[in-house]
Amino acid sequence: MGSGHVGWLWRDGSRVCGVVLGGAQAVGWPWGHRMRPGYVEWAPGVVLGVQVGSWAGGWLFAQRVGSGHLGSSRGKVAAGPLGALGRRGVGVGGGGLGQEPLGSHSTVLGAQDFLGQAFVALGEVIGSQRGRLERPLTGVPGKRCGTILLLAEELSNCRDIVTMQLCANKLDKKDFFGKSDPFLVFYRSNEDGTFTICHKTEVVKNTLNPVWQPFTIPVRALCNGDYDRTVKIDVYDWDRDGSHDFIGEFATSYRELSRAQSQFTVYEVLNPRKKCKKKKYVNSGTVTLLSFSVESEFTFVDYIRGGTQLNFTVAIDFTASNGMPSQPTSLHYASPYQLSAYALALKAVGEIIQDYDSDKLFPAYGFGAKLPPDGKISHQFPLNNNVDNPSCAGIEGVLESYLQSLRTVQLYGPTNFAPVINQVAGAAAQVTDGSQYHVLLIITDGVISDMLQTKEAIVTASALPMSIIIVGVGPAEFEAMEELDGDEVRVSSRGRYAERDIVQFVPFRDYVDDSGNQVLSMARLAKDVLAEIPEQLLSYMKTRDIKPRRADPQ
C-alpha cells in the first residue's frame, strides 16, 4: 500500500461522501469545532493522499472525500501494489488513470480554508482498538485544530446498486409561518454500533406530504453487503441557517427494504423526546417506500474486459493564430530539445488512451489550413494526406504525420470544430451496440468560430457512443471552451439539450511552470484530460441499457 496516508481537512458547502483506504473503509469526524449533535456550523471535508516511495513531497492525491454534512465524511480510495494500477502504483475510483501531486497549492484543494492535517498509516487504523483511531489535527501554527476520528472496516465484494423512492404523510409541522421543508438522512451502522451518513435526499419545500425523487446508492455504502444490518433514517425540517429541526426517525434493513419490490412498506416516524413527554403520542408521520429495485453496478473496466473498443481520433488546430511554426513564439514550434505544446499534449493523452485501443490505428485530422496545391481551406484534412485511410500507426505515427503536415500546409483559419465532430459522430453512429466507443481529442489555441454549429454537433453526438476532449494551448481565456464543457450548464442548441455531458476541456497552461517553460506533469495532464471518459462511457451504456459482455476465458 505504500508507507502511509495523509488527510487535509478543509471546509466548504458540498455534500457528504465517503472514504475507503486500500480495501478498508475509513470514516472520519472532525472534533472540537463547535459542532452540535445533528447540526453543523460549517461543513468540513477531507482530502486523502497516498505516500508513494520516500521522495520529498511524495504525496499523491487519492480522493477528495466530500464534506461532513451533519458531522461525518465517507469516501472511497482503492490502492494496490506499485505498478498494479498504472505507472504510479495507485488507482483512484474508476480506472486509475493517474494522480496529482498533493500540496498546499494543489488544484484539488482549490480555494478551500485549510483547517489541519494528520498523518497515519492504514495499518494503524485497522490495528487500533475497535478499528477506531483518534488523531490530533496539526498544521496551523499557534492554533489548536481539534482532532479527527478514523474508523476502518473491510469492504464486501457486493457490487449491486439500489434505486429507491420514498414519500411521507402527515409529518409534524415545524415552521411557524408555514409547513415543513422535509428531507431524509440515511445512516448505515458500523461494526462498533455507531452510525455514519451514507445519503441525504433533496429538500421538498413547504409540505407535510413530500414525495422525494428516486435516488441510487451502492449496497456496499448502504450496508456493506450485510442485508440484515440496521439502516437508520432521520427526517429533518430544513432551515436556512443550518439548524435543521429533527422531526423523527425510523430503522430498517436492506432485506426489509427489498420486500418493497412486491409491496409498499410503511414506516412510522417516531420522535423519542415527544414519545417520552406525551402519553397520547402516536407518531410524527409516516414514510412510505414507493419503489425499490436492484441492479448490478458495472465499471469501465468491465466493459473494456468485455470487448468494448475505444477508438481514438485526433484533430489539431492549424490556424494562423498559432504563429509561424518556424518562430520560437509559435505554439507549433519545436526545438531540438523540446516538443511543441501540441506534441506534448498529444503524447500525454495519447500514450495513455492507446493502451485501450487494440489496433493502435488512430485517424488524425487537421483543421483551419490551406492545402496544396490550390490553397483550398479545409477543416478536416487527414494529417497523413490519405483521404481513404486517415489512420496513423500509434501515437508516434500521429506525431510524424503532424510534423509532416506543418511543413506542407499553410496555417490559416477560421477555427471550426463542427466538421471534425460530425465526422467522428458519423463513425460512432455506425455501431451503437456498446462494442465501440469513440474519443475525439481536439487540440486548439483560440476562440472558436462556429460556436452555433459546434453546439448543434455536440447535442447530436451526445446520443452516440462518443466523448470529446478539448485541450487548449496558449494564453487565450477559452471562455467558449468552458461553455462547451457543460459541467455547470448542459450544452443546448435550438431548444435541444445534450443527452449527456460528453465534453471535457483542459487548459494546457495549467501544466506549464511559472517561467513559461513547458515543464509538463504528463501524468497529471493525462489524469485531468481523461478523468471523465469512464463515467461518460458508463452513462451511455446505462442510458441504452447495454450490459458488458462476458470476458473471453483465458
UniProtKB/TrEMBL annotation:
Keyword Membrane: no
Residue span(s) of domain VWFA: 311-512
One Pfam family of this chain: Copine
Residues in C2 domain copies: 129-267
Gene Ontology MF terms in the entry: calcium-dependent phospholipid binding; metal ion binding
GO cellular component: plasma membrane
Record InterPro entries: C2_dom, C2_domain_sf, C2B_Copine, Copine, Copine_C, VWF_A, vWFA_dom_sf
Keywords from the named record: Calcium, Metal-binding, Repeat
Record CDD domains: C2B_Copine, vWA_copine_like
Official protein name in the record: Copine family member 9
Organism from which the protein derives: Accipiter nisus (Eurasian sparrowhawk)
